Structures
1.
Amino acid sequence: MENSIKAVLELGRAAVIAIENGQITHMNSPAVALLGNDCIGKSPVGLLPDHLISGSSTCCTAAAVVKDISYCAQVKIIDGVRYVSLEENKLPEASSGLLNNAMMADMLSTLFNIGLAIDRVNDICQPKNKMQSDYLAILNHNYYSLRHVLSNLNTSISLRDGSLPFRFSVIDLAQICSDIVSTVSLLCAGKGINIEFSSRHGEILAYADGEKIERILLNLISNSLANTPKGGKISIGLEKSGDTAYISVNDTGCGIPAHNMSRVFSAYERKPDLSSPDSFKSGLGLSVSRALAEAHDGALIIESREGEGCSVRIILPLKSRNFTVFESPGINYVNSGMSLILTELSTVLGSECYSEKYLD
């Protein structure tokens, strides 16, 4: 490696590891501080997660846990050298100081009261005329949109302080993916976007929190729907290799500009909007999804082809690190139903989807 490249790498605060021919050839100072100064010439296997040191993609962003610390990882392959850049995921100080459990409880209480009021109005307006039905659908849509925001905030806070409950059980990933795609396709029929699911496996059993896996998948589908124009395509795939499952969400949308790739997992960042790839809207979805995947000892990998689309993979071990034998001989998880789908897709669905026809 040229000295000029080494000098540039030393300027950054992120840890950068260069890998060539299966060996670590260079580490900048932050990388040495993270992994130690005796790694040059050694294999990166065991030091870095496998998904960062394998694969042929020349540029991708992925979630990674190194020494129990969560990082946003950038992987680039230039002239046969793989550069892995690790930047620690941290919540902004302002968010952690201004939003506490008491405030969260107040907002959730308000959301509950709004939902209760909508139910009362719905009971009063019986039978309803078209105008009343349309306005109730708009009210329901806004209720689910607020619920989505507060759900992500609550999850983010709970992940940060370690209080988020997980309910692990035996789930069938193929059934979850198939059910979600079938329902989302129905809700999005008017968008003119082809949504399909394919897998060579009739069943893939995993020991995981089914509701959390559904949330991750729905968030990725929501992002694809927001960034895929009419006539586009979203493909969800499910594969298995050994004790690991791979759920992929591929779209033919606008993609993410290269200069924004390092920000996609950032909490409270502004996220890309289809109307303009350089305009952003706030959201916690990918940050929460990354954290939920990591809580399953998994990861998210995002690859973008600007102007062509995105490919996102959920890497999910079929057994948790604290689990050795299936506790149940059969599947004991029932999907979360329409309520979760309407919540997670509230930013991309029209108000017509929040009529009595679709509500649980």
2.
Amino acid sequence: MIYWHYLKLNLKAVLEYRLSSWFLILAQSLTTLFYFIGLRLLFLRFDSLAGWTFAEAALCYGVTGAAFALAECFARGFDLFSRLVIQGSFDRILLRPRSTILQVMGANTEISRLGRFLMSMGILLSILPMTGISWESPKIITLCFMILGGSAVFTGVFILGATFCFFTLEGLEVINIFTDGGRELASYPLPIYGRWISRFFTFVIPYGTMNYLPLLYLTGRVSQWPLLYMLMPLLGFLFLLPCVGVWRIGVRHYNSSGS
């Protein structure tokens, strides 16, 4: 597949400057760790938030951090898409007989974000024994679904943000509300926010399907329809469909920055 060819080329480029790459991976790891320390300090002051314990919130934090790191690693090309439009490089992409989505995804692969992913997974694995959850096979599968589905949601938001560049040339800072801001928001159980915020980030941008709803199943807060809550994170992949549709509309309305 063409994307894997792009991935190998990006990996070779990274390995040309190994020391710099290792320092960047370390910096990404420490950033994730410091955010987690902030979460811990918050719960040292408050025993719980809206009925959620530190271990449950940390579980949410680890899942969100891992999901965002995966999306940022493999779909970073959409986050930096404005450069392709401004430089006119997207014109060359349109001339190639391959999917524009795969080409943009492969244009920039942030291998250094694996540091953030590994740290998030380390936090997640260290928290699991503290949650009091009986980690049977269905719940382990649900946890994996949460990470993969969350990565799909973040990727969809990156695609939507890139689509605006077809009309504005430069990326809009307001999109960061739903990417970096969405990561911070999804790092906590949604009930701690207002009702309209929780509903918006469940039914419009489905961050709630990657953390809050399956977390209800993991923590035993729901007893009916467990399979539904278990599969809820997979809706993140369904969210990709309208995002890709919007992207195709943007491609049809694209005018070269030099025209």
3.
Amino acid sequence: MTNQRNKILQALIPAGLLLIAIATVEPLIWHPFEPGSWFRYVYAAGALTLLLCRLFTVRTGNDLRLRRLYRLESWSAIFFCVGTFFMFYPNGKMRDWLAFTLAGAAIQIFTSIMIPLRQRKLLNHKK
């Protein structure tokens, strides 16, 4: 059951990231930051989906560096959730939520490169 649940959660992660990306690009291209815009809710749904997937995915393994990379990957979802807070905060500016979005994206990019490299290194080391 846990393996099937992990597969479902891993399939939902790109959907959450896609929602965040759509909601980030929309106010930058089409119209400025307006109160009550629909993109806030899309961003919030993506951030919440990503956070829940990261929290409930079970990771196994003994390698300390790989576990730390997975934990760091969870922090990207937390940064996106903080960005969501600043979207709904009455005195929040566009730069506030955009800064947390960029920080979460930077962590996401770093871990998406380093986790496969570490897994490949561990597989080669076992052979």
